[in-house]
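=== Given protein ===
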Amino acid sequence: MRRLAPLLGLLLAGSCRTIGDPPRQAAPTTATSSVPPAAVGAKLTPSSASCSPPRQPSSARLILERTVCYGYCPDYTIEIHGDGQTIFEGRKFVRVHGRVTGRIPQAQVDALFAKAACAHPEKWKSEYMWPVTDNPTAVVTVDLAGDGSPPTVVHDYPPCHETHDGNDTPGELCELEKAIDDALGSSAYVECATPDGGPTYCAP
């Protein structure tokens, strides 16, 4: 346990604020139906030049859910469909509350789904858990077929953890979590600004 203590301290410091630290600016409490202007997704390329999966159907889905922690971690879900349709649902500690629909460029969508397919999610475990408390969880759903067959669902707690005990978050899973966030430009939905313009956590 003494060896894990420094790791636990770093995780808790980096994952979210403690419950005793109030956010510096409250988030809007009204729901919105428009996409924030700053929500510009990042460009992606397939994870391997030798991997060329078939193009995904429009019914295929990639879903990222991030949960609350013992503090002010953003609680939201992003869903991206194979045809570029996006759905954001903000719940707690986010700037945008409620359900917001939108669309991202098809080339960007194709690259994101190719990245997911080339990561071979069928080989992942259903969960990668480290026995610590007070952290958020990332839940990733990969539905490449979009035909009603069971998708791959993985619980990652804490997200992208490295414990070197054989149960680390796979690098490809961690990259996909970040890629889904980046594809939507989630920082525009979940971060509030301080008076000097810097990002901070939002109030519920």
